[in-house]
Amino acid sequence: MKKSLVVLFIFLSVIIFIAGSSEQINSNNRLVFLEKENKELQMKLEQVNSISMLFQDYKDKQRLVPKESQIYALPINGLKKLNMIEPNTVIQVIDAAQCQNEQLWFYVSIPVYDSPINHKGWIPESETVKLTQDNVKQVQGDVYLKEGTPIYEVEQFNELNSVALNKTPNDVRGRIEKREGSFVNLMAPGGWYFWVEDKYLIFPKVE
Predict the structure, then answer these.
(1) Rounded to an integer, what distance in angstroms lies between the CA atom of residue 177 and that of residue 121?
(2) Residues 31 and 58 in one domain
(3) Helix (H) or strand (E) holding 44
(4) 171 and 102 in one domain?
(5) Residue of 47 and 85 predicted with greater confidence
(6) Which domain of life is it from (predicted)?
(7) 18 DSSP 8-state letter
(8) Is residue 108 within 8 Å of 96, Cβ to Cβ?
């Protein structure tokens, strides 16, 4: 009986020792993580406090963003992201600046389809390309429709024949969400989705 108690005591002691060691390791890892995070925050704060922007004229008043990107509150990589830019989106260039004597950034306006919150911010020039006659048909947003354009207000493409043809009550802008043959599914402001023949689409004007 005594031998069993001794073995049990040793077993419990080992478990307590391992648990204590594990907790100490976790505490040390947590401390290292917090120190690293604090150092990164300090570096970003230094960048904000020492930001230098040389504003300059820029010929292009609109640019194409070919891949998913972000706009930032300030022209500093890794800073707060204000909003996402969907692929193949045309953005409006409001201003341009050389930042920290290195990268060129644009202050831009991006298309939004619900609330206009955070629709302006900074993006590196390197994440944009010039809008040309060769790539304008790749644009998904914004595209435009004239007032009176025939549309089908259904969710699925195979439901087109089940509804009556409607017409846009006014000029409409939107984003191409899907393509099916000669039709596209357009998302317009206010959560308005419908199908329309692509021959009616008006793409941004190339400067």
Answers:
(1) 24
(2) no
(3) helix 2-49
(4) no
(5) 85
(6) Bacteria
(7) H
(8) no
Helix, strand, coil shares, percent, the chain, to 5: 30, 35, 35
User: Measured over all CA atoms, what is the biggest interatomic distance in the chain, rounded to whole angstroms?
Assistant: 95
Question: Does pTM top 0.85 for this prediction?
Answer: no
151 by Cβ neighbours in 10 Å (0-12 / 13-18 / 19+) ranks as buried
- CATH number of 194's domain: 2.30.30
Q: Which domain range does residue 66 map to? A: 53-130
pLDDT band at 79 (very low <50, low <70, confident <90, very high): confident
Tokens 């990107």 found at: 69
**Cα–Cα–Cα angle for 45, 49, 53, rounded to 5 degrees:** 120
* 125 burial type by CB count under 10 A (0-12 exposed, 13-18 middle, 19+ buried): middle
Dihedral of alpha carbons 185, 186, 187, 188, sign = negative
The enclosing H or E element of 62 equals strand 62-65
State both tokens at 42: 């300090």
Q: Which residue has the tokens 């048909």?
A: 137
Q: 3-state SS string over 174-195?
A: EEEEEEECCEEEEEECCCEEEE
